[in-house]
Design a protein that fits this description.
4-stranded parallel beta sheet, globular, Rossmann fold, alpha/beta, about 130 residues, single chain
Length: about 130
């Protein structure tokens, strides 16, 4: 039996404009599988066991924040949610310093929500962690 090729080899997910048809199809196929998981009595899979995800939200977004947190927990990730208004950013710390300080805690992935469109790409350029927009 021929092994199916995995098309998702990218470190960051900043947008879909540069993705091939095959990569987008792979993402959608994966989403279909996880949709089936939601119909189970136990809605948890070990996909991200041992992975630490930090949600960096610089603007209010209840639905987006809860959607990401639920997905991360259902994939068995360890999650930390960050709110800019209760962080050192509110005292003048730069985004770069905040991101690097968080990464120094050995995180694996950052989910970012920011009003400035260039922030996710900026973070992907300065961090070793994966960045999801």
């Amino acid at each position: 039996m021929k092994k199916k090729q995995s098309y998702f080899l990218r470190k960051h997910l900043l947008g879909l404009e540069d993705y091939t048809r095959e990569e987008i199809t792979h993402i959608l196929d994966t989403a279909d599988f996880f949709r089936e998981v939601l119909e189970r009595p136990i809605k948890r899979v070990p996909t991200l066991t041992g992975v630490t995800v930090v949600n960096l939200f610089f603007e209010s977004s209840t639905r987006t924040r809860i959607s990401f947190e639920l997905a991360e927990k259902r994939l068995s990730a360890d999650t930390v949610s960050f709110s800019a208004n209760t962080s050192s950013i509110s005292k003048g710390e730069s985004l770069k310093d905040t991101a690097r300080n968080i990464e120094a805690m050995k995180i694996d992935m950052v989910v970012v929500r920011h009003s400035s469109p260039g922030v996710p790409r900026f973070l992907s350029e300065i961090l070793d962690s994966s960045v999801i927009n």
